[in-house]
Design a protein that fits this description.
Layout: H1 2-14, H2 23-40, E1 44-45, H3 63-68, E2 84-91, E3 100-103, E4 107-120, E5 123-128, E6 132-135, E7 141-145, E8 151-158, H4 160-163, E9 169-173, E10 184-188, E11 194-199, E12 210-213, H5 218-228, H6 240-257, E13 261-262, E14 270-272, E15 275-281, E16 292-299, E17 307-310, E18 314-320, E19 322-327, E20 330-335, E21 339-342, E22 348-352, E23 359-366, H7 368-372, E24 377-381
Antiparallel strand pairs: 1-21, 2-8, 3-9, 4-5, 4-6, 4-7, 4-8, 6-13, 10-11, 11-12, 14-15, 15-16, 16-23, 17-24, 18-21, 18-23, 19-20, 19-22
Amino acid sequence: MERQGEKHRELLREERQDDLPTDYEYRFITQVDEREKLQTLPRVFKLNLVPTTLEGVAQSRGKHKIFGDHIVYHRLTRAPLYTLTADYYIMSPKAPRRGAHRHVTSRLFYIVRGKGYEKQDGRTFQFKEGDVFVVPPFTVHQHFADPELGCEAFVPKTSTTHFLGLYWREQHEFGENPIFPPGTEPIKDQQGQLIGYRIKKGLHGAKKDIEVYLGVDPKWDEIIKLKREAARWDDEPKTTYDHYLQLSAVENQEWTSQSHVIKGDKVLWENTRQGKIKYLVGPHNPAGKWTHDLFIQEIPPSSRSGKHFHLSEELILILEGRGYDIQEGVRYDWERGDLVCVPVGTVHQHFNADLVKPAKFISAQPRHWADMGYGGFVQLEDAPEYEG
């Protein structure tokens, strides 16, 4: 270990310090470059189909999947967002069974259309249009659509998982009749049973063949067991270290006790300064602690929302109607099925362009900003219908 440390120190001494840019100058170069790039990227995206995946068939992902997925390490590549991304699942009626997997972070699925059920660690939870089903951390889960109606779901995500070192998952089961994409091949045991797949050298820059097997990762499986076995801590912590021991127990209890399905028809609408809003997941709902705030907003015909800004990014899926956003004085038109991006610290307002029908959308905002102390809103104009 000491030999390795000395070698590292020797390499540092050999570096020419005058060749290294200082952080102070570099930060100004970066922020100007990013600001210019942000202004050239679109704010509204259309959904589009992509090929079948190993996870399951009849799956649709929008272009938003491409512009900021967890596996995309470059910020501001296709959209003006640093962390927000999303999946959009289409599980057709009578579609083959989807796969099962487990990952560190939690997930929120808003059901746009249809209904189905979710299996989580052996338990089954039913959901329908307008509901949100929650996948707690470290949970083996698998989605099933109603065979007659099918199901569509909006799944907001953040790429911070990768930067926190938590981008890990296990594949427990492939989708039914999986199709392996170019650059991969199945791995079978001596009895011909599918037990994994091989990612060939060169695919996505892989420097060697990589084998992915179905089942648990021993290291992470042990971590999960230890975490879930954390003892209850009901006494007041006596030291700072006790606080962290208690926190682990509290987190474990919250994971196991939170709602797995939030029934949309049981949540009340609120008349707010921003407009008619229904918070499905928010600061007063335990599910909101893990990933995102989720709310539905409805704008009457020919009306508008309030005008505000917040430091956090926002990703909006238009559920009904047509209209436009005004973001920092620029108009961006949208219609049903579009994804609307609101970058960091952007003054924005939503307008319903239909004279007869209301517009409705679901908004996702990551909880990270609020947890860091940057979660507040600043209201610049109230919605016309607001009655304080």
